[in-house]
Amino acid sequence: MSAATAPAPTRLWLVRHGETDWNRAGRYQGQADIPLNANGLAQARALPPTFSGLPIAAIYSSDLQRAAVTAGVIAAALKLPVIVHPGLREVSLGQWEGMLHTDIQAQYPEHWQARRNDPVHAHPPGGESLGEVAARAFAAADELARQHPGQQIILVSHALLLASLICKGRGIPLDQAFQHVPPNCCAEPVDWVLV
Known about the structure:
This protein is an alpha/beta fold. The chain has seven helices and five strands. The protein has a five-stranded mixed sheet with strand order 3-2-4-1-5, with helices on both faces.
């Protein structure tokens, strides 16, 4: 695709869901469908002014309730529907879901070390690697950017999936994704360029 025919970048507003009790406790959530806690709901309610005056074209969300509820609060304020996109679902953490990192290190020391040595390709037992969730995230972002060239859209999703999009959108090596996980209910703008 030449520069003359390339669509305009799509601004993705990447929003991590509000806090859950597992976030607060430091438990790995993955695809476990944990609800927002009271603080998470308050965080979601405080987020809509971030988008005040912006021409938001659409709001997309993971199908997991902590993201979908967060998206619903934003959508109600902006008077837009929430469009659920399964490609925005968090990484599967397999047998690590529900565990504290200290317990994971104690019970799965080889897997934990493998993830530290090769963060892109290593994966928890029964779960996805960063590379796998990133491929899913990039495909979803490309699809949505094709639908919304030059527009601004909100994607409400999860820690590691959003970190992978931040890395790709800002030219950061994917193996640094764990250092770019956004806080709960933080909106990170990324201009997504189709190539």
